[in-house]
Amino acid sequence: MQEQYLTVAREGVHETEINRSRFLCALAPAATEREAQDFVARVRREHPTATHNCFAYVIGADAAVQKAADDGEPGGTAGVPMLQMLLRRDVRYVAAVVTRYYGGVKLGAGGLIRAYGGVVGEALDAVGTVTRRRFRLATVTVDHQRAGRLQNDLRAAGRSVRDVRYADAVRIEVGLPDADVDAFRGWLADATAGTATLELGGEAYGDG
């Protein structure tokens, strides 16, 4: 399982002109293949008169799902170089659509490959990427008297507090790197005089 991956920080569009053709690269985070497909369809609807709407997407921290399409460009000159750029930059859970408005000058196969791959790289730089790290979900259960202080201590220690639920006791969900679990147990015992319990859950990816 991957320890971390990059994804795009937000949805965005970057435009460039190459030999009078306009290339617009739209990027968006996509948690599932369906989200990626919906994004591709939306961009196509926004540019119905474009010469081509080529796409590539990568889903899964391990890049398990990879799809690309040339949308009428010569085979392998658009979608594949777009996909290769996403993979080379280690970007995951992302969809890219490059919309081309033809400007009357043929680029040739090599020119197309450089154009489609290049505009994706430029768009990644323009939109920005964020790192998602693998962590263990852990639930801390503590009494109401200590809960407020513990939340402050957790945040002061740089821990990712993901959720807080109040019931007969207070349950605080945090994200921990696997390597930190043992050290966190010790810290928690010290911080709560041994009154808090720690329950480990599944794994997820996030900023934590």
From TrEMBL:
Q: What sequence ranges are listed for the domain UPF0029? A: 140-194
Recorded hits in InterPro entries, A to Z, give:
EFG_III/V, Impact, Impact_N, Impact_N_sf, Impact_YigZ-like, Ribosomal_Su5_D2-typ_SF, UPF0029_Impact_C, UPF0029_Impact_CS
Where's the Impact N-terminal domain?
20-124
**Gene Ontology cellular component?**
cytoplasm
Give the GO terms filed under biological process for this record.
Answer: regulation of translational initiation
Q: Report the domain of life of the source organism.
A: Bacteria
The UniProt similarity line reads: Belongs to the IMPACT family.
Matching NCBIfam families: IMPACT_YIGZ
Q: What is this protein called in UniProt? A: YigZ family protein
